[in-house]
């Protein structure tokens, strides 16, 4: 049962390393802003409209939370079992869809443009999470998690579990990382010299890989384990302006469920404990200093003393 903390500082925000003290606001606590979802995923902030979108995958809908009123309503239903979202450099919604096995862009007039649905003549599996680089290229992970009746439709994967990039000019789809163990969340470092990718099925422990950007930012190389997650299950990830990595986290354990925060050198520095497993997160609010967390059946928010990477 969710019980908000009525006193400050909120014990749900835990300092695991002294360097995290500067990011914790002593007079801010975790808030639950929406509940009643079946599996919350893919939050994305629209500052120009002051609203948050979040996927409810099994219910085949995208919900909209209004910052001004706190109202929650339907943004899109059916959503083709959409999962992760982001915005491109023109402010348009970019979405990963399980049911259609594609990545799409919603135009200003509401029309849907397909950015990627095939590679090497075969259908994508179930695009999961997506980010857009400053050059306009669209990068996404393609595991097989959505090939079930619960999250999109039972089907057989036709491709290895890869990471792809869609060129901003030509629209060509390139495979930039092959045969990963359940590629999931991904994020660029603020200077775009690194790409982080979650491996949700890595053995013996799930992990977060880091790659170096090469070829003028069009390719990645030198993969290595950035975080060995031990018993933890990482999911969606985002960087703040200082390069810290904020990770959705869960294990069905109240001591581990929520968000883990890592410094650029891989040190675990902070934790936000939630009563539900956190699948994904994003920064938003007027100053990009409010962390929105999609966690199982609910959406939570917390003001922090940093801003999400622009």
Q: Name the shape in a single word.
A: globular
Low-confidence stretches: none
Q: Strand order, main sheet: write it out.
A: 1-24-23-22-21
Beta-strand proportion:
over 45%
The CATH topology comes to Neuraminidase
**What is the end-to-end distance?**
35 Å
Please indicate the count of domains.
1
Fourth-tier CATH superfamily name: TolB, C-terminal domain
Largest sheet: 5 strands, antiparallel
CATH architecture descriptor text = 6 Propeller
Overall structural class, as computed from helix and strand content, comes to mainly beta
**What is the β-strand count?**
27
Radius of gyration: 18 Å
Order of helices and strands: EEEEEEEEEEEEEEEEEEEEEEEEEEE
What's the overall average pLDDT, rounded?
Answer: 96
Instruction: Give the helix proportion (percent range).
Output: under 10%
CATH class category name: Mainly Beta
């Amino acid at each position: 049962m969710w019980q908000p903390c009525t006193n400050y500082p909120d014990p749900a925000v835990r300092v695991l390393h002294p360097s995290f003290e500067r990011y914790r606001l002593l007079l801010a606590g975790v808030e639950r802003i929406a509940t009643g979802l079946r599996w919350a995923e893919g939050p994305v902030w629209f500052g120009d409209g002051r609203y948050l979108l979040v996927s409810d995958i099994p219910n085949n809908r995208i919900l909209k939370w209004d910052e001004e009123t706190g109202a929650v309503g339907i943004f899109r239903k059916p959503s083709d079992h959409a999962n992760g979202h982001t915005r491109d450099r023109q402010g348009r919604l970019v979405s990963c869809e399980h049911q259609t096995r594609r990545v799409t862009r919603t135009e200003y007039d509401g029309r849907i443009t397909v950015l990627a649905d095939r590679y090497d003549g075969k259908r994508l599996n179930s695009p999961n999470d997506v980010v857009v680089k400053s050059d306009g290229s669209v990068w996404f992970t393609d595991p097989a998690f959505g090939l079930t009746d619960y999250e999109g439709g039972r089907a057989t994967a036709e491709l290895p579990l890869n990471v792809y990039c869609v060129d901003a000019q030509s629209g060509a789809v390139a495979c930039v990382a092959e045969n990963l163990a359940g590629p999931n969340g991904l994020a660029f470092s603020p200077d775009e010299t690194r790409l982080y990718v979650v491996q949700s099925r890595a053995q013996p422990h799930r992990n977060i890989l880091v790659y170096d950007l090469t070829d003028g930012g069009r390719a990645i190389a030198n993969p290595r384990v950035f975080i060995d997650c031990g018993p933890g299950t990482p999911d969606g990830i985002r960087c703040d302006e200082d390069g810290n990595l904020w990770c959705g986290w869960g294990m069905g354990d109240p001591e581990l469920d929520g968000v883990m925060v890592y410094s650029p050198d891989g040190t675990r520095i902070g934790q936000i404990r939630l009563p539900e497993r956190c699948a994904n997160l994003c920064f938003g609010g007027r100053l990009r200093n409010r962390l929105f967390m999609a966690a199982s059946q609910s959406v939570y928010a917390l003001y922090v003393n940093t801003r999400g990477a622009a």
